[in-house]
Amino acid sequence: MSDQAKLQTGGESYEFPELSGTCGPDVVDIRKLYAKTGQFTYDPGFTSTASCESGLTFIDGEEGVLLHRGYPIGQLAEESSFMEVAYLLLNKELPNQGELDDFIYTITRHTMVHDQLRQFYQGFRRDAHPMAIMCGVVGALSAFYHDSTDISDPEQRKIASHRLIAKMPTIAAMAYKYAVGQPFLQPKNDLSYTGNFLRMTFGVPAEEYEVIPAVEKAMDRIFILHADHEQNASTSTVRLAGSSGANPFACTAAGIACLWGPAHGGANEAALNMLHEIGTPDKIPHYIERAKDKNDPFRLMGFGHRVYKNYDPRATVMQKTVREVFEALDVKDPVFETALQLEEIALNDPYFQEKKLFPNVDFYSGIILSAIGFPTTMFTALFALARTVGWVAQWNEMISDPGQKIGRPRQLYTGPTQRDYVSIDKR
Ligand code: CMC
C-alpha cells in the first residue's frame, strides 16, 4: 500500500496515492483530483509536474547527475558511441557486438532521402535559417514514407524511428550545402554515422573528403551529449503532438520547432554570439552586470537550467572536448579564453551562486562546432539531429504504453465571464 498525500480543501479532506520511481522524488498521483474535488492544479511551466512515466533518462539536478537507462553520461561520452547510445535509448539495453553491427547496418541503409525531397530545398531562400529548413523538410517526410506512419504497428514505428535517425544527418547537411551554394553530397555507406555527416557537410564532389578521426570523435561525443534529456520542452512537445496520434515525422518537426527557441536548443547559437559580442575578457564585468539587471533582458546564454542546480555534467565533457579539438586542429580561439574567464567570474558572483546558475551544455558546444567549421546557424540543427534519437525513443515509449491518453492540460481562466453579443452599430 503506497503512502497517501492529504489535501484539505473546501472543508473536506482528500487522499491521493504517492508513487515512487526507481530514482528521484516521489510523485503525488492527482489524476483523480478533479473528479474528487472539482479543482485543478495550477503549474505553468510544469515546475512541479511529472507529465509521464519514463524509463529512459534520469536527471538529479541538485547533484548534477544524468543517466541514460542507468548509465552515467560521462561514461557514455568517454567510452561509447552515438550509435550505441541510440540503440540503448531505443532498446533499453546496451547492444552486444552483433546487435550493434545490425543496428548500424540498418541506420546506414536508411541515410538516403527521396530524390524528390531535394526540390523542397529549392523553395527556400539561400539565407534561410537551417532550422527553418529542418522544420519544413522533416515535416514533409510524412508525405514520402506512408508505409511507416501507422503508429499502431510496432514494426512501422521501428522503421520510422530508424528512418528519422538515419536521414537527419543527410537533411541537416543538405541545409548547410544549400546555404553555401554547393551541390548536395549523397551518403557514403563505408563511413561512420558521424563521419558520413561530416563528409556530406564539408566534402565536395571534386575531391575525396578525409574524415579527421579526432574531429569525428568529438562530433560523435557532442551527439551523445545531446541525445536525450528527459522531459525537456522539445521532448514534451513531441510527446504532446504524438499523444493525438500524429505520425512521428510530424511530431519530430514539432520538436524541431520547439528546440529552435533561444531558451532551449537555440542557446548554443546565442551563447557563441554573446561570447563574440563580449569580445575580450575586460568587457566581462559589464555583461555580468547586465545579466544581473532585472530591467535588462540580457541573460548569460549557456548559463542556468530548469533542472540542474549544479554544474551540468554535459558541460564538463564539453569543456574537455574543446581542448581536444583545438589540439587536433591546431587552432586557438580567444573566445575560449573569454568563455573560461566568464565562467569563473560568474561562478564566484553571489547572484549566480544564490540562484544556482552554472554553465549548461550549450556554453562550450558552440566553440567546438565553430572550430570544426560550422557556422553558428547550424548549431541548433546539429542539436536537433542528435536529439532526434531521444525524441523517437520517448515517442515510442509513450505510444507503446497501453494507458496512453491524449495530452490535454486545463487552465485557470481569467477572461470575461459570459456576456451577450453586441451588434457592431452599438459598439
Ligand atoms: N542569466 C542571468 N540570470 C538568469 C539566467 C541567466 N542565464 N538564467 C536564469 N536567471 C535568473 C532569472 O532571472 C531568475 O531570477 P529571479 O528569480 O530573480 O527572477 C532565476 O535565475 C531563475 O530563472 P528562471 O528563468 O525562472 O528559470 P527557468 O528554470 O524558468 O529557466 C533557463 C531556465 C534555461 C530557460 C534559463 O536559465 C535561461 O534562460 N538560460 C539562458 C538560456 C540557456 O542557456 N538555455 C539552454 C538551457 S540547456 C539546453 C537546453 O535545454 O536546450
UniProtKB/TrEMBL annotation:
> What are the GO BP annotations of this UniProt entry?
tricarboxylic acid cycle
What the entry lists under Pfam families is as follows: Citrate_synt
Q: What pathway does the UniProt record associate with this protein? A: Carbohydrate metabolism; tricarboxylic acid cycle; isocitrate from oxaloacetate: step 1/2
Q: Which GO terms describe its cellular component?
A: cytoplasm
Under the heading InterPro entries, the entry gives: Citrate_synth-like_lrg_a-sub, Citrate_synth-like_sm_a-sub, Citrate_synthase, Citrate_synthase_AS, Citrate_synthase_bac-typ, Citrate_synthase_sf, Citrate_synthase_typ-I
Q: Which residues constitute the catalytic centre? A: 305, 362
Example GO molecular function term?
citrate synthase activity
Question: Catalytic activity annotated for this protein?
Answer: oxaloacetate + acetyl-CoA + H2O = citrate + CoA + H(+)
Which UniProt keywords are given for this protein, alphabetically ordered?
A: Acyltransferase, Membrane, Transferase, Transmembrane, Transmembrane helix, Tricarboxylic acid cycle
Q: What residues form the membrane-spanning segments?
A: 363-386
Give the protein family. Belongs to the citrate synthase family.
NCBIfam families per the UniProt record, alphabetical: cit_synth_I, PRK05614.1
Q: What is this protein called?
A: Citrate synthase
* Organism from which the protein derives: Alteriqipengyuania halimionae
